[in-house]
Each structure stands twice: as structure tokens, then as C-alpha cells.
């Protein structure tokens, strides 16, 4: 690591001297760019967008470099921004889009942790002011940094800090590579990691006998321990055997294992319910799919909304052969959201109540989850006979980042209206809210090599900007290129900027508080009565209540 | 047309495209296509791996080093589509 998190000694000196001027300018410039982009995207009916021009050659710029010392903006291509720094003896200018800072003394772009943080906050702050919820028109809940209060600071004093990244191979316990690949992709899921590392489910305090949450907690403890030898997830496997149908020593499907594990974590989470659950699994993976069925005769559309934890995508086959050019993640999603003709007898319109006419069905994503999981249907089952299943080995191209806007319910129909086909088709431009709300970054991939009956699962996972390859007990440093060119079976994307809901006390805590108050009231009443008998009774009741509370705590 | 006038025309068109938002729209289409084709990730990967061993590390050298590959590997279909978009916009402004 670099000392004090900076590659540039000059910015440190400058920040010490007249930091506030530079920082204010920097923030203004970044917010200006966010607002400019938003103005471009929302003004369908043309409003003129301000275009700064290069102070040297007069060229209009959509992405200028702005001097942090004066009003100058300049271009990169003709080096005018850098010339200005030299001529005016100014030190720093910034790229308005990325916030990258150029130092004239270093004669290069620099990294400075403090400025990086300011840039992230300025951009996020400006974007939050641009985001209104579509229904309530309320502004998005602003991100608040965690600052420990006295109690938390005191508690943290006794803690030993550990690095927030850790990698450990997992031993193959006899054809359990499917489980290892799934576990690694759960371990590298930033939301699950933060949940379990912040001790939200402590296995020492849990009273359930078989609990997948406890197994996850144990797993994270092991992964983040100082021991870096491969770990045997025996208890996890045993738990999987007991709670799902994936038992025995045979190779199982990683996707089946993934879904079974998610369901198990969900059902052993605190406060999990069957409808609109806000357990860690539903908060992380839960989204909504909208399906619109349109009667082609009377135009009546019936809309159904279904909760999803992941999306399974078909691969394109052409006369038995696979068309590789059409197998990109974006192409699969386009096909997924394309209107599909329903068979004649599949649908009865409620409006014109006739059976025998045409209808079309269209899927779209109504609510994007914080983590998107995709599965490519590589295992094609021709008949119900399992032995005839074959594997589609075609490569699928997936991107390191994807914008999900074109596949959302809000935009999918707009797309047809606006562009249809032709140049620029399928790339939405006018959005509800800033583009960033639709941006997702790849953090994990599960691969399947070999044939269906004797295959092997491996996976790739990312921490910050580095990729690692996991093959059971072997963990190796890898690259983005290697990950993207591997044969992908499942892939996982995390939303770049999460949006927050205002904090709400969970219902089970409110219930407990209510009971607590009732108890107190009862006590008071008993004391007022003044009879020893009453007192004893309420005491008994207290004990019973406490037991119920404990039992409740353990189950929720 | 003399080259000076051409420069003035180019500057004028560029300003109009930026002010009308078409510049950003074309850019968005270009980026979406390059990203889907794998170009963005390929260039990023190559540059990053090169940066690991470059001594001393310099943005300008890295940028100049990747530029020829970056320009030569843009898929033909993407070039055609973006050219068509640019033409559409120009016709709107020049007619």
C-alpha cells in the first residue's frame, strides 16, 4: 500500500494549504456533470444543454477537464487543459466524468484516497437529488456514513481489526464441487458478506437445531480466520443433506443447490415471512417480474407480478446448432423480454371472453434486486427422461458491467415506440432517474466444464478490482479477461449504487417492546392491588413471558 | 470548401450536437454496443494487465499504447450503426 493512500505528494500539500477552495471547486464540477447528464436524459423535448468550450481552441466539450484553481475548462485531445496548467502555473485539473485528477507536477493522473472519497460523495449526493420514486415522488433516502456513537466506539475498542477480504479454498468432499462453487459465490456477495461479518446471525446464540444461517455464519468465520489452508465445509454439506433433496454422493446441479441454499437461509433468518419478506436473502436477491398478457383482439392487457430470486435465460439454438453471435447476456435478456405469441387455447380473455384467438405475453423486470443472478439453461432436457438431457457448450459473452434499463417494465414498451428497429434501437436514452440506478457490476461466475454426467464446477470471484479463480481447494489470482472468456453457467451482478429505505424498527422488535410495556403495566397493577397473591401470579407470568420471548427470538 | 471553413463548420456542428443532447445519445448507443460486443472489457483487461508491469506507470503512455488496438478492433457493425446515427443527426441540422 502507498503511504497515506496517495500517489501524489503535491495534492497533500495543497490540501493542507488551501484545501477548501480546491475541494469546493472539485465538488461543484462533479455535481455539474451529474446535473448536465440528467438534463440531457430527461429533456425529451429539446432544451438546450450548456456546453462549455475549450479555453484554448474554442471546441465545444461534452466531457471537459476543469481546472481546480480557476474557471478554465479545456480539452484532453489537443492537450489544451495541460497547457493551461503549465502556463498559468496551476497544479490540478479534473475530468468531470470520472473525477480523475491530473497533477501538473507529477505530469500524470494521480490517486488520492481523500479526494477519491470526496468525489464519490459529491457524485452520489448530486444523484440522490435527481432520484424521485416513481409512485410517491419522494426523494431517495440519502446515504449516511456510519459514525460510531460512544457506545459503539467503546465496544469497538476491544476488537482486533481484520482485513475485509479473505480467500480460502474449499475441499472437495466427494463430487461436491457444485457446492463449493455456490459457496464461493455466496461468500463473495458483498451484501451477504456484510450481513454475516456484522454478526447479524450469530451461531452461538441461535437455538435452531438445523440452521443454514448458522452454517453461513460458521463458513464466514472460517473463511475470515487466520487459517488459510483449504476448509472442509462438512457441516454445511451435512446440513444441505438434511434440509434438501440434494443428498447422496452424486454430482448435483449448482443452480439447484444455489436455490435450495437461498431458500434455507431465508427460512432460518430472523423475521422471515412468506409474503414480502425482508430477510437478508429477499433483501439481496428479491426482485419482481412483470408478465403482461395482451389479447390481440380487443387489446385488453392482464398484468401479473411475480417475485423472483434469479433469472434463467435460454440460449439460442439454430436448427440444432448454436448461434454464438446471438449468445450475449444482453441478447438473451432481449429475447427474454420480447413479446411471445401464446398458443390458441392457452389464454382466455376476461374482456371478450373468447378462447380461440391470439394473445401475446411479455415479460419485463418490474423491480431490480440489489444482486442479480442469472443462470444460462445449458442443460437441455428433450423429454421427461433424465438420461436424454444434453449440455449446450456454446460460449456466452457476458460484460463486466451491464445497464439493466432496457429490460425493465418502465422502459421495455417505450423502447418499441421510440426506436423500433434501425440505428440505435434498444438503447434507451430518456430514463426515470439517473443512469446509475440501472448499472450492475459482475462479481462472480460459476463455470461448468465437461459433460453433464462427469463435469466439474469451478468459479471466478472478484474482490475490488481483482479476479480470482476457485477450483475446489485451489485459489489462484486471475484476470477479468480469463473470467469473461470462461464457459459461464451462472453469473452474479451487484448494483453499483444501492438505494436506501428510511430505517424502520423491525416488527419483531416492536412486538417485543410492546410486550415489555404490557409487562410493566401489569406489574404496576399488581403492586397497586397490593396482594401477595397478585404479585406472585404476575411474577410467574413474567417468567413465562420471558421464556416465550426467548423462544420467539430463537425462531425469528 | 477551404479547410478553415471546414474547421468552423465542424466546430459549429459539434456545438449543436452537444447542446441538443444528440452527442450524448450517440455516445450512449456507441457505449452500449461496444460493451455488448466485449470491446470495452477487452480493452480494459489489456490495459490493466499492461499497467501491472509498466515502469514507470504513465497514463499517457498507456493510452497511446492501447489506442491503435482500440481503434482497429471496433466491430464493423458498430461502426456502421454509429455512422448512420451521426448521419441522421447531421441531416436534421443541415437541412
UniProtKB/TrEMBL annotation, chain A:
It comes from the Eukaryota. GO terms for molecular function: cysteine-type deubiquitinase activity; zinc ion binding. It is an enzyme of class 3 (hydrolase). Residues 512-542 are annotated as: Disordered. Keywords: Hydrolase, Metal-binding, Protease, Thiol protease, Ubl conjugation pathway, Zinc, Zinc-finger. Residues 168-496 form the USP domain. Transmembrane segments: none annotated. Coiled coil: none annotated. It catalyses: Thiol-dependent hydrolysis of ester, thioester, amide, peptide and isopeptide bonds formed by the C-terminal Gly of ubiquitin (a 76-residue protein attached to proteins as an intracellular targeting signal). GO terms for cellular component: cytosol; nucleus. GO terms for biological process: protein deubiquitination; proteolysis. Its EC number is 3.4.19.12. Residues 6-130 form the UBP-type domain. PANTHER family: UBIQUITIN CARBOXYL-TERMINAL HYDROLASE (PTHR24006:SF937). Belongs to the peptidase C19 family. This is Ubiquitin carboxyl-terminal hydrolase. It comes from Coprinopsis marcescibilis.
UniProtKB/TrEMBL annotation, chain B:
Keywords: Activator, Chromatin regulator, Cytoplasm, mRNA transport, Nucleus, Protein transport, Transcription, Transcription regulation, Translocation, Transport. It is found in: Nucleus, Nucleoplasm; Cytoplasm, P-body. One of its GO terms (biological process) is mRNA export from nucleus. Gene3D superfamilies: 1.10.246.140. Pfam families: EnY2. One of its GO terms (cellular component) is nuclear pore. GO terms for molecular function: transcription coactivator activity. Involved in mRNA export coupled transcription activation by association with both the TREX-2 and the SAGA complexes. At the promoters, SAGA is required for recruitment of the basal transcription machinery. It influences RNA polymerase II transcriptional activity through different activities such as TBP interaction and promoter selectivity, interaction with transcription activators, and chromatin modification through histone acetylation and deubiquitination. Belongs to the ENY2 family. Component of the nuclear pore complex (NPC)-associated TREX-2 complex (transcription and export complex 2), composed of at least SUS1, SAC3, THP1, SEM1, and CDC31. TREX-2 contains 2 SUS1 chains. The TREX-2 complex interacts with the nucleoporin NUP1. Component of the 1.8 MDa SAGA transcription coactivator-HAT complex. SAGA is built of 5 distinct domains with specialized functions. Within the SAGA complex, SUS1, SGF11, SGF73 and UBP8 form an additional subcomplex of SAGA called the DUB module (deubiquitination module). Interacts directly with THP1, SAC3, SGF11, and with the RNA polymerase II. This is Transcription and mRNA export factor SUS1. It comes from Coprinopsis marcescibilis.
Amino acid at each position: 500500500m502507498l503511504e497515506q493512500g496517495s500517489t501524489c505528494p503535491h495534492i497533500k500539500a495543497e490540501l493542507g494549504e488551501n484545501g477548501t477552495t480546491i475541494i469546493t471547486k472539485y465538488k461543484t464540477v462533479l455535481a455539474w456533470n451529474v446535473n448536465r447528464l440528467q438534463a440531457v436524459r430527461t429533456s425529451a423535448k429539446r432544451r438546450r444543454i450548456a456546453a462549455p468550450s475549450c479555453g484554448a481552441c474554442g471546441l465545444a466539450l461534452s466531457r471537459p477537464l476543469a481546472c481546480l484553481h480557476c474557471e478554465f475548462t479545456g480539452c484532453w485531445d489537443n492537450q489544451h487543459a495541460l497547457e493551461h496548467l503549465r502556463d498559468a502555473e496551476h497544479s490540478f485539473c479534473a475530468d468531470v466524468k470520472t473525477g480523475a485528477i491530473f497533477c501538473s507536477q507529477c505530469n500524470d493522473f494521480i490517486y488520492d484516497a481523500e479526494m477519491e472519497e470526496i468525489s464519490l460523495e459529491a457524485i452520489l449526493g448530486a444523484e440522490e437529488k435527481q432520484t424521485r420514486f416513481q409512485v410517491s415522488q419522494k426523494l431517495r433516502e440519502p446515504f449516511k456514513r456510519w459514525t460510531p456513537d460512544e457506545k459503539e466506539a467503546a465496544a469497538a475498542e476491544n476488537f482486533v481489526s481484520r482485513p475485509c477480504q479473505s480467500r480460502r479454498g474449499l475441499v472437495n468432499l466427494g463430487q461436491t464441487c457444485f457446492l463449493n462453487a455456490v459457496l464461493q459465490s455466496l461468500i463473495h456477495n458483498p451484501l451477504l458478506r456484510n450481513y454475516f461479518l456484522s454478526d447479524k446471525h450469530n451461531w452461538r446464540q441461535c437455538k435452531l437445531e438445523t440452521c443454514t444461517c448458522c452454517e453461513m455464519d460458521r463458513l464466514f468465520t472460517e473463511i475470515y480466520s487466520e487459517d488459510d489452508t483449504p476448509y472442509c465445509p462438512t457441516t454445511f454439506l451435512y446440513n444441505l443433506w438434511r434440509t434438501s433433496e440434494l443428498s447422496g454422493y452424486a454430482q448435483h446441479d449448482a443452480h439447484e443447490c444455489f436455490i435450495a441454499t437461498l431458500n434455507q437461509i431465508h427460512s432460518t433468518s430472523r423475521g422471515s415471512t412468506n409474503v414480502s419478506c425482508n430477510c437478508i436473502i429477499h433483501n439481496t436477491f428479491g426482485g419482481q417480474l412483470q408478465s403482461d398478457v395482451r389479447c390481440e383482439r380487443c387489446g385488453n392487457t392482464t398484468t401479473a407480478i411475480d417475485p423472483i430470486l434469479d433469472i434463467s435465460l435460454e440460449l439460442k439454438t439454430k436448427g440444432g446448432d448454436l448461434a454464438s453471435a446471438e449468445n450475449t447476456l444482453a441478447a438473451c435478456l432481449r429475447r427474454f423480454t420480447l413479446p411471445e405469441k401464446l398458443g390458441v387455447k392457452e389464454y382466455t380473455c376476461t374482456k371478450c371472453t373468447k378462447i380461440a384467438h391470439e394473445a401475446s405475453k411479455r415479460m419485463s423486470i418490474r423491480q431490480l434486486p440489489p444482486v442479480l443472478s442469472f443462470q444460462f439453461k445449458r442443460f437441455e432436457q428433450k423429454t421427461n427422461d433424465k438420461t436424454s438431457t444434453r449440455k449446450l457448450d456454446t460460449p456466452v459473452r457476458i460484460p463486466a458491467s451491464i445497464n439493466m434499463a432496457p429490460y425493465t417494465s418502465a422502459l421495455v414498451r417505450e423502447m418499441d415506440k421510440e426506436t423500433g428497429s434501425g440505428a440505435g434501437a434498444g438503447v434507451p436514452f430518456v430514463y426515470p432517474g439517473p443512469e446509475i440506478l440501472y448499472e450492475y457490476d459482475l462479481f462472480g461466475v460459476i463455470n461448468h466444464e465437461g459433460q453433464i454426467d462427469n463435469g466439474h464446477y469451478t468459479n471466478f470471484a472478484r474482490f475490488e478490482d481483482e479476479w480470482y479463480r476457485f477450483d475446489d481447494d485451489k485459489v489462484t489470482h486471475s484476470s477479468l479477461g480469463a473470467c469473461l472468456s470462461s464457459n459461464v453457467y451462472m453469473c452474479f451482478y451487484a448494483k453499483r449504487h444501492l438505494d436506501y429505505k428510511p430505517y424502520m424498527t423491525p416488527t419483531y422488535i416492536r412486538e417485543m417492546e410492546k410486550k415489555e410495556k404490557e409487562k410493566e403495566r401489569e406489574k404496576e397493577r399488581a403492586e397497586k392491588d397490593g396482594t401477595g397473591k397478585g404479585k406472585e401470579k404476575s411474577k410467574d407470568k413474567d417468567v413465562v413471558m420471558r421464556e416465550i420471548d426467548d423462544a420467539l427470538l430463537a425462531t425469528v | 470548401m477551404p479547410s478553415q471553413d471546414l474547421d468552423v463548420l465542424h466546430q459549429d456542428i459539434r456545438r449543436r450536437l452537444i447542446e441538443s443532447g444528440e452527442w450524448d445519445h450517440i455516445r450512449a448507443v456507441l457505449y452500449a454496443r461496444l460493451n455488448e460486443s466485449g470491446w470495452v472489457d477487452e480493452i480494459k483487461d489489456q490495459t490493466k494487465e499492461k499497467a501491472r508491469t509498466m515502469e514507470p506507470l504513465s497514463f499517457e503512455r498507456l493510452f497511446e499504447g492501447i489506442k491503435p488496438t482500440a481503434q482497429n478492433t471496433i466491430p464493423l457493425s458498430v461502426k456502421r450503426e454509429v455512422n448512420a446515427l451521426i448521419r441522421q443527426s447531421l441531416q436534421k441540422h443541415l437541412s
